[in-house]
Design goal:
Helices cover about 30% and strands about 20% of the residues. By secondary structure, the chain is α/β, with parallel strands linked by helices. The termini are far apart.
Length: about 260
């Protein structure tokens, strides 16, 4: 049987850049982007065309950042998608490869972050679980100094993005993908948890602030109701653009009141 025709709309690098500018993306700004490539329509050129479009809208003075997480380099005891047999845990811990910013592929964050991670000139932070990649004149400031015991807190790229006045672009992605809310979790703070990681000398136990995206969709809906969030379409994707600092400040107030573990 012949393959079915792709569903549209047909979008291109130029049309995406036009849509991004119409939404309000500004030349020279710093942008943290979460994406769902499939929501855009049929993209001529795939994820590379989307990266080009974002860079076109930001211009040479702008900086693009994305999460490039490596959730497969975590303790297998906590894996649930899918879980692995308990009797495998120790072997997996003992043989898991260490994190390498240059070669460890991102996982669970979509194809566009992996595309940007390997883009010429892109830089990546050093955290073995929750790294970020960035491209542009402020990239080094964003990714440098990502502490191994601070996934998404004050010594992570999120705090540097906040300092730079970055905005968040949810490009077809929902608020459950909004990493900025996790910075608020560090400031509440949450309870601690073991967040071990592999290393050259074996498995390293690390105590970290516990984080979860539980109820982020509700948090996002409330934030959008009460805050200046720009909404529009980029290609076929429902898209949101807002201040990262505003999102963190709102989450710091909302989470203790609506999520018991944030108390």
């Amino acid at each position: 049987m012949p393959a079915p025709q792709p569903t549209g709309p047909l979008v291109t690098r130029a049309s995406l850049a036009t849509d991004l500018r119409a939404l309000g993306v500004e030349s020279g700004e710093t942008l943290l982007v979460h994406t769902s490539l499939s929501s855009l329509g049929w993209v001529n050129g795939g994820p590379a065309a989307v990266v080009h479009a974002l860079l076109d809208a930001l211009g040479p003075g702008g900086t693009l950042a994305v999460p490039t997480q490596t959730g497969d380099l975590t303790d297998p005891e906590g894996w649930g998608n899918p879980p692995i047999p308990r009797e495998w845990w120790e072997t997996v811990r003992a043989t898991m490869p260490g994190y390498d910013p240059a070669t460890s592929p991102s996982r669970g964050v979509g194809v566009l972050p992996e595309t940007l991670r390997t883009w010429p000139g892109a830089l990546r932070s050093a955290h073995p679980h929750t790294s970020f990649a960035a491209l542009g004149p402020r990239a080094a400031r964003i990714v440098d100094g990502h502490a191994p015991d601070c996934r998404l807190g004050e010594r992570s790229p999120l705090a540097r993005l906040e300092e730079l006045g970055a905005r968040v672009l949810l490009l077809g992605a929902g608020y459950d993908s909004c990493t900025s809310f996790h910075l608020a979790e560090y400031r509440i703070p949450f309870q601690l948890e073991d967040a071990g990681r592999p290393g050259p000398a074996g498995w390293h136990p690390v105590t970290e602030v516990a984080i979860t995206a539980d109820r982020f969709d509700e948090l996002g809906a409330a934030f959008e109701r009460d805050s200046p969030v720009v909404r529009g379409r980029v290609g076929a994707a429902d898209t949101r653009l807002f201040s990262l600092a505003d999102a963190v400040a709102y989450a710091q107030k909302w989470l203790p009141a609506h999520r018991p573990q944030a108390g």
